[in-house]
Amino acid sequence: MFKNYQKYIIKSLCFVVITSFVLLSCNKKKPHSTVKLASIKNTKVKANDTIYIEKENLIIKTNNKQDIYNNLVVNSASLNTFLEVKNNHIFYLIYEYNASITKMQHIYKYIYRDSLILVFKEINKLNKGKFASKRKYFKNFIIKKQTYDSLEPILENVKTHYISAKKKMKMFLYDYDNNEFGNINSLETGLEKYLDVSNNLKNNINEDTNITNIEKANNTAYYLEQSGAFEETINLLGKIIDKDPNRAVAYVNLGDAYWGLGEKNKAQKAYKIYIKLMKEKGKEKQIPSSLLERIKGK
Fold first, then answer.
1. Mean pLDDT on 48-65
2. What's the total number of domains in the chain?
3. Residue 193 lies in a domain
């Protein structure tokens, strides 16, 4: 009887040990998914048929051509990359940092027209009830072999202006040389912007832009138009013209942006104002002949 009891004790102990091992294995924390997009594990996630993410790469397919941009996508326990596509040419890469007390979003706007062009980088920070937002526009920034690591430091050393996250958001605007030229005042609070950044990008929310340096702003608008960011160019030039209605060069840039969008009537209207102002300033000879041809409909 004693031997049977001894066997029972041994069996019971074995059961406890095995059960404990299984429970510990089940409770062990699983590593975060390596890639994440819209809460989906990403081995291959398509936003549309033209622009999509595959592992650590951004892939763009147009006209039977495929371009692969390596290492623009980085995901880990503390950093996630999201792709937000506006159309077949314009998209955003959004990086969210969640490891520290300071939560951050690095947002890059791209345009693809034969080559990949970086239009702007925006940084949003949320820290202990305070919010900061800043955006830098670029000058003919063509992406070739750049990676996440090479782009990540951009704009970090530019001054960060914190305000209460419960107050209306204010974003500071900088040109390609880090010169501040204006700011955007939103109807949303900083917290609302941070939590709903995807919707803000989709709807192009840009309530009230205040220009503080017209020359820097106009130069920025010119390079935006050259990059193919026509809608952004028109928004910015509209604010410049509100501030200085007699700035002739703003109208020619505005006309070029409308022309790029295929809105020729609006383009011709802007060109005609430009010509009028140039004649008033005695600079009629400086009017480009190509512009006159556009007015004639050629």
1. 84
2. 3
3. yes
